[in-house]
Amino acid sequence: MAEAPLIVVDSSGVITGWSSGAEQRFGLPAADAAGRPVADVLAGGAWRQTRDDAVPGLWVEPLAGTDWGIWASDGDVGAVGQALLDMMFSQSYIPVRVLDTELRVMRASVPPGTGRDEADGLRGRLFTELCGFEEPDAVDAFLREVLDSGVPGIRRLFHARPDRAPDDAPHTGRLPVPGERRALSITALRLEERQGEQEREGSTVLGIAVSMIDMTEETRRAHRAATLTAVRENVGATLDIEATCHELVDTLVPAYADVGVVEIVESLLRGEAPQPGPVQGDDVPLRRAAYKGLPPPARRVGDIRTLVHGTPYQQALSDLRARLIPLTGELWADVDPAQARVIRAAGSHTLLLAPLTLRGAVLGLVSLYRSGDSDPFTEEDIPVAAAVASRAALGIDNARRYVHEYTVVSALRRTLLPQRQAEQPAVRTDHLVLPGRDSTNWFDTISLPGARTALVIGEVTEHGIHAATALGQLRTVVQALAALDLEPDELIARLYDTAAMLVRERDQLPPEDPLHRRPLSASCLYAVYDPFSQTCVVASAGHPAPLVVAPDGTASVAGVPVGPLLGAEEREPVAAATVPLREGSLLALYSSVLRDYAEPRSGVLRRTFAHQDRPLSHLCEAAASALPDTPGLQGAVLLLARTRAMPPERFAAWELPHDTSAPATARRLVAERLAAWNLAEDTGDATELIVSELVTNAVRYGSPPVKLRLILDRGLTCEIWDGSTTAPHMKYAGAVDEGGRGLFIISQLATLWGTRYAPQGKTVWSEQTLPPDGE
User: Which domain holds residue 391?
Assistant: First the structure.
């Protein structure tokens, strides 16, 4: 037809379109006509009162889909209502039933090409008995609500199991199987007899007109689409392989399947890359990563199995195709009887298998079962399973990559942290690292000459492999600078210079490098404890000051000036603070995230460390229990040090005369002390020569007073202090030179030697390694 229809009617006889031409012909506004049954509008006669001239007739023809169009004709419209009803009952493929007030069939439509015998056989039967409704009481309540209220019931969905194919089967795609669960959309309209539009009070209820549309395939398509949407939204949100598998089964069961199983190639859980190509043999172990459904599984989550040849599971991972398996007959009982028994016991009737693959490599297998009264899977579910598996495989591989990087970073970070705490003569240390996947903290205890101990803690703000790299660079620099025996403030100042150099190196990287112009931000606290002075000198670059707990349990945060972070553009003069530590004091260095727990308003760490009589390991365990288990504290570090004074039997100190007799006096005093320590035979001659050369230099080039200290620690240390700040340096004397060989001799006899400076003088020291006991 060239002209547009006056009226458009949907499959249930309700007006969905009312043109301006219809308004002119019938005198009824579109707002009053839309949504009403066309039979009521045309047969009611309300429009007749608005016109005196002749009104042309109407004809009805089908439009696209299930809509109908009504056009104007030259005939009389008086019988339009009856003609429309005759058309709907004889030409419509949509089942229409007219029910009386008892909900019994009075008239039934006859689909084109069929006889009337079937329709006549429905007369007098209750509507709820016709289609095998699963909830006939709900259908009855719906129809009676329409009958009582007069409000149309539009497209209400009910499920049924008809004993024959519905009348509209040729238009729904796959031919339904008798007894198969169907979704029926029912529209119900009350039929009334009245004289005019205004005489509602006197109308008589005649019954109900009911139309049915089989929406099974549409419902299933919508269900499949909703399943895919749910998987896209809910699966792969975490970088955890097992969590991703649990997200998948939680999304699919029970919304899409009755039982869901996800199995993962075992090596993936360790972060290893999957092997390309299908799985042919039975040597690839699969770990059950997730299960959901009833009954309880025969294999628990975490169990490992290998695939059995000849089963659909092995075939799916061999050809990498999703497949539908009807679970009928003997299944594969001859090759895997245990699995066959489990399936039969569960009452499963269909299995949907989908391999988890990515770029041709196998990651695992998804198994979905439907059991009991659930609709069986169909061939249309195979693309859904493939899409679900593809989405899950992407999330699993992302998690695997994270596990791989985490494993590498963790291994690298472990090698960068102290493998064991060095035994110190005047300080005991222990540490706590709170569990965490991406710790960016480091700590260290470094033995220094003179029985001193350096305590270091720091952190970087980056994460992943870049954090481990920056952590390793800074830790190495700190250890190298500590070997130079620098004061804490000088060491931190040089660490600022190192960080600035690393930032410049990043700026010079190619633009495509991930670290190009990436800022470096880190903190570091460096503290040196001297058991002879019982003080700790502390300097900090952006790291919180340590907590000091006195022997009586009183705690306070040390007053240490905190400079800017390493890598910051601004630079300030580095200042160190000297903290007195009586014997038995506890010094606690901690990550910045633990700052609030060290403050007085929290008191968590203060209360934990108040029990000074407990071993350090117990204090670490108590701190781990006292601190909250929150993500923000994961990977935090706590380094504890309990101080002691240097045992008197482990050192000796003398003041020497500032004259030529000093070397001989020093040799005699050292010989006596080495004899008392039973070291005269092992190191006596070398030590006396080292002391003689150091004292000679101090008398010749230094200023009084001259002091000698001999320390028996992890090695044997000789220290000569004088009041001059002149730096000694090694010379290479000629063959006939009488002097200039002192420091060269010392460098040959000692394991280490060096100089450290103080405001009023300097100390030149040497350290000798002692032979193990029994040698």
Answer: 221-405
H or E segment to which residue 17 belongs: strand 15-18
φ, ψ (nearest 5 deg) of residue 95:
-60, 130
Measured distance CA(400)–CA(405) in Å, rounded: 9
Q: Are 33 and 93 in contact (CB under 8 A)?
A: no
Q: How many CA atoms lie within 13 A of 310 on its CB side?
A: 9
Cα 591–Cα 592–Cα 596 angle in degrees, nearest 5:
110
Q: Looking at the structure, do residues 38 and 166 belong to the same domain, yes or no?
A: yes
pLDDT at residue number 245: 95
Domain identity same for 268 and 234: yes
The amino acid sitting at 215 is M
Q: Do 240 and 323 reside in the same domain of the chain? A: yes
For residues 203 and 296, state if they share a domain.
Answer: no
Answer yes or no: is 418 within a domain.
Answer: no
Average per-residue pLDDT for the chain: 82
Are residue 485 and residue 450 in the same domain, yes or no? Answer: yes
Query: What Cα–Cα distance (Å) separates residue 756 from each residue in 4, 483, 727?
Result: 102, 11, 9
- Whether 380 and 440 map to the same domain: the answer is no
Residue 466 has pLDDT above 90, yes or no: no
**136-140, 309-313, 333-337, 738-742: range with lowest mean pLDDT:** 738-742
| Res 171: pLDDT | 39
Cα Rg, the chain, nearest whole Å: 45
pTM: 0.59
- Dist. CA 47–CA 647, nearest whole Å: 116
CB 186 within 8 A of CB 153: yes
What whole-number percentage of the chain has pLDDT above 70?
82
